[in-house]
Amino acid sequence: MKNTSPSITLKEAFDSTFHHKFNFNDFLNLDVKNECKSFYKNNKLILNPSVILKKYLRFLNNFVFDYSAINIDVVHSYIKGRNAYTAVEKHAHSKYFFQTDINNFFNSITTKDVDFILTNNLYAIPISDIDKYKFNLLNLVTIDNILPIGFSTSPSISNTFLHAFDNKLNNYCQGKNIIYTRYSDDIILSSNNRGDLKDAEEKISVYLNLFHDGRVFINPRKTKHTHKGEKIKLLGMVILPSGKITVDMKVKKQLEILLHFYINDKDKFLDYLKNHYHGELGTISGQLNYINSIDNTYLYKLRRKYGNFIIDTFFNQTIK
After folding, report:
1. Distance (Å, rounded) from C-alpha 220 to C-alpha 203?
2. Of all helices (H) and strands (E), which one includes residue 224?
3. Between the N and C ends of the chain, which has fewer C-beta atoms within 10 Å?
4. For residue 254, which phi and psi values (nearest 5 degrees)?
């Protein structure tokens, strides 16, 4: 959350951002549905905004939604310098863990919720007449009364949506010496005492209900307790008994099989790429970057085993 005093109008901010290349009234009255293409990924509806809508949403983040309140001690999603690794790192030396996520998170956030967020964060937004345009902004960042997956404004809005919940749960956790972090809809609690986490699921459910009237609830299929001595997997990362964070063995195994086939059998490589990576080289490049940010000692091992040239080829997606 940024802090500043209101100083310019929304139109002045718009014109200074776009240098009069776009019309302010066109921005206010944009038909958002016609500026999106939709597709499904992992059974979720994703909206891909047009180039112009992406620009408008980025503008709204810069001048409106990035100023909304979040609990900086807890939130690790969609914030510069924070990521899934930093969310897990806080728990590296705990012994007992509780994790869950929020069911259908983004689509649980309604236009009314975004209106509430705007109203309660007017003091922090550096636009002097933002209240005048609330209706227009709501039409730009929600579709069919829900927060769409795929809009660049949705992550910031979702963080603020849980602000009161984060504060309440964090206060409870601090009183129990429990570590709490959240990455988007993923909630992680940990402690060095097993008993501290016995009421975790109940407390989270009660607080979600308290602030969101029973519309937001946790996913029981992704709710579990674990402890050191068994596999600790959080946000796709594994915490070893030493406290070191590394990549899941399944990811390592798949990647090394792929690299082996690339060197020794191109037909098997192409088949494996299709069956395990949907034929997308970008997935491998992203995976290597992910590994580099989590456990660069493993990346160094890959470089020693397969050579710098091979690894850099996949990093840069230049395979032939």
Report:
1. 14
2. strand 224-227
3. C
4. -60, -45
Query: By C-alpha distance, which of 2, 228, 205 is closest to 96?
Result: 228
Nearest CA to 96 among 200, 203, 25? 200
* Lowest pLDDT segment from 157-161, 217-221, 267-271, 316-320: 316-320
Write out pLDDT tens, residues 298-307: 999 999 999 9
Question: Tokens 């690299």 belong to which residue?
Answer: 259
Q: What is the pLDDT of residue 283?
A: 86
pTM of this structure: 0.87
Residue pair 83/140 in contact (Cβ under 8 Å)? The answer is no
User: For the ranges 164-173, 180-189, 218-227, 292-301, which has the lowest average pLDDT?
Assistant: 292-301
Calculate the alpha carbon distances from 264 to 280, 287, 307 in Å: 20, 21, 14
Model confidence pLDDT, tens digit, residues 237-260: 999 999 999 988 889 999 999 999
Query: Closest Cα partner for 140 from 38, 54, 227?
Result: 54
Q: What is the DSSP letter of 148?
A: P
What is the C-alpha separation between 159 and 198, in angstroms, rounded? 26
Asked whether 178 and 188 are in contact (CB, 8 A), the reply is: no
Angle of helix 281-294 versus helix 296-306 axis, rounded to 10:
120
How many CB atoms within 10 Å of residue 175?
Answer: 8
pLDDT digits (tens, 9 = 90+) for 138-161: 999 999 999 999 999 999 999 999
Whether 173 contacts 163, CB under 8 Å: no
Q: Which amino acid is at 238?
A: V
Determine which helix (DSSP H) or strand (DSSP E) holds 61, and give its type and residue range.
helix 51-63
Query: 262 and 298 in contact (C-beta within 8 Å)?
Result: no
Contact partners, residue 214, CB within 8 Å, separation at least 6: none
Give the span between the Cα atoms of 151 and 167, in whole angstroms.
26
Query: Average per-residue pLDDT in the chain?
Result: 92
